[in-house]
Specification:
There is one protein chain. By secondary structure, the chain is α/β, with parallel strands linked by helices. The chain has a single domain, classed as Ribonuclease H-like superfamily/Ribonuclease H (Nucleotidyltransferase, domain 5), CATH 3.30.420. It is built from six helices and seven strands. The chain has a five-stranded mixed sheet. The chain has a two-stranded parallel ribbon with strand order 6-7. β1 and β2 form a beta hairpin. The longest helix is centred in the C-terminal third of the chain and has 24 residues. This is Ribonuclease HII. Endonuclease that specifically degrades the RNA of RNA-DNA hybrids. Its cofactor is Mg(2+); Mn(2+). GO terms for molecular function: manganese ion binding; RNA binding; RNA-DNA hybrid ribonuclease activity.
Amino acid sequence: MLLPYHQPDIVEAGIDEAGRGCYAGPVFAAAVILPPGFAHPLLNDSKKLKEKDRNLLRPIIEQEALAWSVQMMDQTVIDNINILQATYRAMHAAVAALAVAPQLLLVDGNRFTPYPGIPHQCFVKGDGTYASIAAASILAKTHRDAYMLALHQDFPQYNWASNKGYGTADHRQAIASHGLCIHHRKSFNIVPVQLPLFGR
């Protein structure tokens, strides 16, 4: 059972990311402020949900939330400042884009760079603890999956429609066969030797 809030009577925003460990594509972050009393029987950590359930919940969250935002940092940013800093930057951008100003940030994980003027608390497995973080995890995941599905149309050889850019066996085999493309994260040392790059 997810908790509806951490501190009652203040405006809390749940924050989570998707795609931090991927070989390709951006890292996405979402911030969500849920209304008091929001509940849905399927709401949970996005990793524990089937894809169809995540896709069912996305429009419900977007319609019912007091405010929500999804932001991304692409592979260029990731390669320039590293994946952890790019994740924090995406999270900060998501908070900045909220239409309602939160008074407390509930962040999934154990580390976070403080956001100016808003206190935060980190929660390991927070996406399975607090409803707002679970909602953020679903928005970050579904928006990122949709983005990778669009990229798949131009780069079908990597099967991003299925693996979403993660380092699955089929993705690693495709890299070995075709090399890296412009959407791969070069700083991740995906292959032992640099393979040719190509783009559109």
